[in-house]
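Job type: complex structure
Entries:
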Amino acid sequence: MKYSKATNYALHTMLYLVSAAPNKPIGVQLLAERQGVSPTYLSKILTKLVKADLIESASGANGGYRLKRKQEEISFLDIIHAIEGTASLFDCTLNHSSKCLIQQEMVEAERQMEQYLQNKKMSELAGKMTVD
Amino acid sequence: MKYSKATNYALHTMLYLVSAAPNKPIGVQLLAERQGVSPTYLSKILTKLVKADLIESASGANGGYRLKRKQEEISFLDIIHAIEGTASLFDCTLNHSSKCLIQQEMVEAERQMEQYLQNKKMSELAGKMTVD
DNA sequence: TCAATCAAAGACTTTATTAATCTATAATAG
DNA sequence: CTATTATAGATTAATAAAGTCTTTGATTGA
Ligand code: SF4
Ligand code: SF4
């Protein structure tokens, strides 16, 4: 069990957008170069972030991506959910009883992690880290 | 990102062993039947649990598997780690700075989940759940 | 001792998921 | 219009998970 590389790219891209000038859209070309990934691939990842309403895109010359919300309103969890989806990490296909303790505990454990990630906002990274 | 099916099998097997008579080893045949999985495959999973010192095995007639520790000394996390390994969920291959906040937060979030799972022991399931 | 029973190990195959590419289409600024 | 940039979908490649098959080794008890 691992976070996908896509999530990694998404987090780094968001970090970069956070530390960039807020009103100048940044093209996928540049974002991809920095991370050593192909523009077309990063593009699909960013489209997910757009659909999750975390960033917005502009087509055409001088277009690109920029934050749609304030830094303090974007959490790690938002980004992760946008890429990985929101389904539970533990899936018991059978699911016979709502009182199943295994499932309950696994879900609660996950909730603990998500709670932490939800409280971590992009604003905490801004300035405190340089993107490379 | 999902827990593997192997983890699911491991948890269910442990639950079954917990609710079984502690001194009579149970063969993989029976354990596999209950879960609708092939004995040889389950066997490799159980071998991991043996190596993690959670259960012990006996070869030969009347052999099989049984708990090696007390119920209250086996946590969900023990089982999960035995199957999934202990590597971090988030891997940044670059890893340039020990001060990287992204990595720090991701690791800390995971720690929250693990802490919860470490406190959940098999003894909490015993009796409260029927295996099916 | 020997045959039946059971676990361990390793090589292998199949299936599923993730990662990535390629190509075509749509939007927009200048 | 045309250059630029995002979106979408189909497709391929790479990696990981799931599962099978076969052999070996240990143990029991007849
Ligand atoms: S016991 Fe719980 S986790 Fe297992 S199959 Fe039933 S509902 Fe799912
Ligand atoms: S910024 Fe942090 S997470 Fe990203 S590559 Fe560097 S060390 Fe890894």
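Summary: The pocket of iron/sulfur cluster (ligand 1) is lined by residues A 92, 94-97, 100, 102-103; B 12 (CB under 6 Å). Chain A touches chain B at residues 1-4, 7-8, 11-12, 15, 76, 84, 87, 89-92, 96, 99-102, 105-106, 108-110, 112-117, 120, 124-125, 128-129, 132 (CB under 8 Å).
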